[in-house]
Design brief:
999 residues, Neutral Protease, domain 2, 41% helix, 30 strands, alpha+beta, Immunoglobulin-like, five-stranded mixed sheet
């Protein structure tokens, strides 16, 4: 029940009747709490109500009448409650010592935004970990400014136990304490405090309260990460945080929205055997914790104004290593400490480059980087304290492949770029998350290229981001990167390919049409004007407009950046330009429409920058727009003889479909254009054919002509070609045409397969990337030379006579396990248990899913549903192993992408849905990743019907996975339609050209 609005005296009397007497009065001040304070404030004691000594006699008839009346009233009340109240647990009131977190009402229909009439500007947070009870006890004092006169304080809290008796609200301006009438959880993860007197406009207030929260079991909020310590041979615990995007509210009461930037003062208690790190440098030396022997307090300097999601701390017994850059430390479990040196060497180069490129100093005072054993994301850009999954920070030359090394460099650069984009300037709301993720993704390519000039890494934005974004954005269910966000589920879902990959591609496009000098000046305005503040896309575009006006840059004569970019960010999808060529008049007519694999393209029009290169002027260095398509069509005159190419280096976020004469001219001249353009033509043509906008004859000839004549084996076009051919392989694998398709790629890549094998000794970046890309395809067939060599290498490894090089381990392991039996699988599992290398564990997990034996795959799947029922524990009685939540999607995907395990994985997901939801949690979209890995081998009407039935049967149990299931269903529908429209003609083409693929 809620305490009613009573007179102060009566309110106190009411509370004293239902609360423990020793908790009704709490002395408040800002000193650090002692152990006694904490014990008292966090002791949920039982209590009794004593009966009165007075004797009162009531006649039996009156008692009967009163009893019947009470029963009738109770039944009536119950009936009304049944009809009117939502069928869920009700909010617990402040009449309990701790206020529970059970908000009611359908989240989808709730406006989750906090009111803005209060602005927090300073937090003082004291935290005490309780390792025995697996929880954190704390106090928080929040300084607030009242913007309007209101009688309520509303902030975010989730899974916190707030001590209602400790709450104190007083005016900093007048030092008067406000009387609190009511405290309760309300829907949408909020907590409300009602006051008798209003909080007056312009005055400042201090909200002070005590709370506690359990260590989270899903790697969210404040959580406990377990790891095995080689020194002590024991399992140890580490406390870490993951507050982004909306989980600071799990850690402490706060205004958990990005626009509520505040200063944070953080104080953490710890045993002297452990250490802590947080956002800022420590103030002085640790201070004794009075009353608690063997414990000390670490007091940290105040942060600059930051959002709550960037607050972070780690409590561990880790050791640190220095980076050449001052005030930078890298932390890891002691056996892994030497593996932080690669990142340590990259940091100064990357930071110095980004400082110079952006012309803005590195904003953080100190920097700690920590390798966390269990971590949901790849990394997290917390202010001054970047946390990483171990495999994303640790580099071991004996076990880390060149691809893993590339990933470490990329993730490190991405998180460093966030210190400007997201941390220094924060989006006003999550609908503009691309402002931080898109910019950081784009800048990561520049920073890695600076650290590793020989990698030519800026080109890899094409296969890694552009190709990925275009593929994912080609569905009717695609969403814009800036959209209205109505609930917490949508906040988590916005962190997808759109905000990262598409966001980076749009930043790249703006850089190109603005020119880099104007682009950089606009970026510098943005970082300077909104330093330690918030901004949205309109603010960014205004900065670009100002920079363009100063440079007199005529990027468009009659518009501004906002007009150009609005549809690119606010509409789903992207355009495909269809071109009609007049060879006689040397003119081209360009028309645009939305590119869709299936469905109605609608009438969205984009402002499209048209860059052009021709065979008469093949200057591929100039990608500046020569014209703008701002309506449905445009006609241009060109100087060309045989071919021209629109969208030079694919700097624009769109595809191009030429008419047949131009396509055939480009097929003939494919080796006369740069490698990046070859990749662009192959990528566009394969996607156009997939969408039935182009005959497969065009892309298959393009790929064949390149594959046969590319004696240098250029990395980017080869990678794109194989990635695009993977779709055809998946579609044809169960059809009579699969043998013809296998003959196609074996024939055209014959020289490539012969040039690249496991005996190659080249060790430069591009050669190693090429080796991996080619061998993955070369080893596909069991009878291939590559597959035979891989199995032989694996057998020698089992015998202990060789060590397989890190760059080919995945191929060797997977090939041998796919072709072998239980002996090969068991050996890989034994190595998984033995190794302490995070990257090697990842390779082995992937490889274990390659087996064709379903009973072995079933063992693996069992580990995903519930940790305590791990198949490895059951079968091998190995009590030290448990599958980490962070690896669930990796294991499941390795099985679902295995043709032998695809149906097995789907059946497992259907059978264990409820357990998976509970075990995997909601924080990292793991369940959605499982769903989206299913369609790879689904292309029949029966499989589509089964997937649709699965969604229907889930009903209300679907949770936040509705959009992922909708996308999976759409993907399978597209494949079913593809089979109906394309299979026969493709089979005929492969059959007709079977004897002359080498034309």
């Amino acid at each position: 029940m809620n305490v009613e609005y009573l007179e102060p005296r009566k309110w106190k009397e009411t509370v004293s009747k239902v609360l423990p007497r020793d908790l009704t009065v709490v002395t408040r001040n800002l000193r650090v709490p002692t152990s006694v304070d904490l014990d008292n404030n966090f002791n949920g004691r039982k209590y009794t109500v004593n009966s009165s000594n007075n004797n009162v006699v009531i006649p039996r008839s009156i008692c009967v009448l009163l009893t019947l009346s009470a029963l009738c009233l109770a039944l009536l009340a119950a009936f009304i409650v049944f009809l009117l109240v939502p069928k869920c647990d009700q909010d617990k009131s402040i009449t309990q010592s701790f206020v529970g977190d059970k908000p009611t009402g359908p989240v989808e229909e709730i406006d989750l935004r906090l009111p803005t009439y209060l602005q927090p500007f300073y937090y003082k947070i004291n935290l005490v970990p309780n390792f025995q009870q697996q929880k954190i006890e704390g106090t928080v004092a929040i300084s607030l400014k009242a913007i309007e006169e209101k009688y309520e304080v509303i902030f975010n809290a989730k899974e916190l136990r707030i001590d209602g008796n400790s709450t104190l609200l007083r005016s900093i301006t007048t030092n008067e304490t406000l009387e609190i009438l009511e405290q309760e959880y309300i829907p949408s993860e909020k907590f409300k405090i009602a006051t008798r007197e209003p909080l007056k406009e312009g005055q400042e207030y201090l909200l002070d309260l005590n709370f506690e929260t359990d260590f989270n079991s899903h790697l969210l909020g404040i959580y406990n990460s377990r790891y095995f310590d080689e020194r002590s041979k024991k399992t140890k615990n580490l406390v870490s945080t993951q507050f982004s995007p909306i989980d600071a509210r799990r850690g402490f009461p706060c205004f958990d929205e990005p626009s509520f930037k505040s200063v944070f003062s953080i104080n953490i208690a710890r045993p002297t055997s452990l250490s802590t790190v947080s956002n800022m440098p420590m103030k002085g030396s640790p201070q004794p914790f009075e009353g608690r022997e063997g414990w000390v307090w670490d007091h940290y300097e105040d942060t600059p104004p930051i959002p709550s999601y960037l607050v972070a701390f780690v409590i561990s017994d880790f050791r640190s290593a220095h980076s050449p850059r001052p005030s930078t430390e890298l932390w890891a479990n002691k056996p892994f400490l030497s593996q932080t040196q690669y990142a340590a060497k990259l940091i100064p180069t990357m930071i110095n480059y980004l400082e110079s490129y952006l012309n803005v100093s590195f904003p953080v005072k100190k920097l700690d980087l920590v390798a966390i054993p269990e971590f949901g994301f790849g990394a997290m850009e917390n202010w001054g304290l970047i946390t990483f999954r171990e495999s994303m920070l640790l580099f071991d030359s004996n076990n880390t492949s060149i691809e893993d090394q590339k990933n470490i460099a990329h993730v490190l650069a991405h998180e460093l770029a966030h210190q400007w984009f997201g941390n220094l300037v924060t989006p006003k709301w999550w609908d503009d998350v691309w402002l931080k993720e898109g910019f950081s993704t784009y800048l990561s390519y520049l920073a890695v290229a600076k650290a590793h000039p020989k990698w030519t890494y800026t080109q890899e934005i094409f296969p890694n981001e552009l190709t990925k974004a275009l593929e994912n954005d080609a569905y009717a269910s695609s969403e814009p990167i800036t959209k209205e966000i109505k609930n917490n589920k949508q906040i988590r879902q916005i962190f997808g390919f759109g905000s990262y990959s598409k966001g980076a591609c749009l930043v790249r496009m703006m850089n190109n049409f603005l020119t880099e000098p104007v682009f950089l000046k606009g970026v510098r305005y943005y970082l300077d004007r909104y330093r330690f503040k918030n901004a949205d896309h309109k603010d960014l575009f205004k900065c670009f407009d100002d920079a363009a006006a100063e440079n007199a840059n005529p990027f468009v004569n009659f518009t501004n950046v906002g007009d150009i970019m609005t549809n690119w960010i606010s509409k789903p999808g992207f355009p495909v330009l269809t071109i009609n060529t007049n060879m006689q008049n040397k003119t081209i007519t360009i028309k645009q429409r939305r590119f869709l694999l299936d469905g109605d393209p609608g009438n969205t029009l984009w402002s499209v920058p048209i860059s052009i290169v021709t065979d008469q002027n093949p200057n591929f260095q100039d990608s500046s727009p020569k014209a703008w398509l701002q309506g449905e069509s445009i006609t241009l005159s060109l100087n060309f003889s045989h071919w021209y190419i629109i969208n030079v280096n694919q700097t624009g976020y769109y595809m191009v479909n030429y008419d047949e004469k131009i396509w055939h001219a480009l097929i003939k001249d494919i080796m006369n254009v740069p490698p990046l353009t070859r990749a662009q033509l192959i990528g566009d043509s394969m996607e156009l054919a997939k969408a039935n906008l182009l005959d497969y004859d065009i892309p298959l000839r393009l790929i064949a002509n390149m594959a046969i004549n590319d004696k240098m084996i250029m990395f980017i076009p080869t990678l794109v070609a194989f990635n695009k051919l993977s779709f055809l392989s998946d579609m044809l694998v169960n059809t009579p045409a699969f043998g013809l398709f296998e003959n196609y790629h074996k024939t055209i890549f014959k020289d490539t397969y012969e040039m690249v094998d496991f005996s190659n000794t080249l060790d430069d970046y591009l050669s190693l990337r090429i080796m991996k890309t080619v061998l993955e395809w070369s080893c596909r067939s069991t009878e291939s030379r590559c597959a035979i060599m891989a199995h032989n290498l694996y057998r020698k490894w089992m015998q202990g006579s060789i060590t397989i090089q890190p760059n080919v381990r995945h191929i060797v392991y997977c090939t041998a396990i796919r072709q072998g039996g239980k002996a090969e699988w068991d050996f890989a599992y034994h190595e998984y248990k033995r190794t302490n290398s995070p990257t090697e564990k990842n390779v082995l997990l992937d490889a274990l899913g390659c087996t064709k034996h379903e009973w072995l795959l079933s063992r693996m799947l069992t580990a995903i549903a519930k940790e305590e029922k791990s198949y490895l524990n059951i079968v091998l009685n190995d009590e030290t192993f448990s599958m980490r939540i962070q690896d669930a999607d990796r294991i499941f995907e390795s099985i679902s992408h295995n043709k032998a395990g695809s149906q097995l994985a789907f059946n497992f997901l259907r059978r264990n849905w409820n357990d998976l939801k509970e075990h995997l949690g909601e924080g990292f979209d793991i369940l959605n990743k499982l769903i989206l890995s299913l369609p790879k081998h689904m292309n029949t009407e029966f499989q589509l019907a089964e997937l649709q039935k699965f969604k229907k049967d889930l009903g209300d149990k679907i949770g936040s996975s509705g959009p992922a299931l909708d996308r999976a269903i759409e993907m399978v529908k597209m494949k079913v339609v593809w089979m109906q429209k394309n299979y026969k003609s493709l089979e005929q083409w492969l059959y007709a050209h079977n004897d002359n693929f080498g034309y």
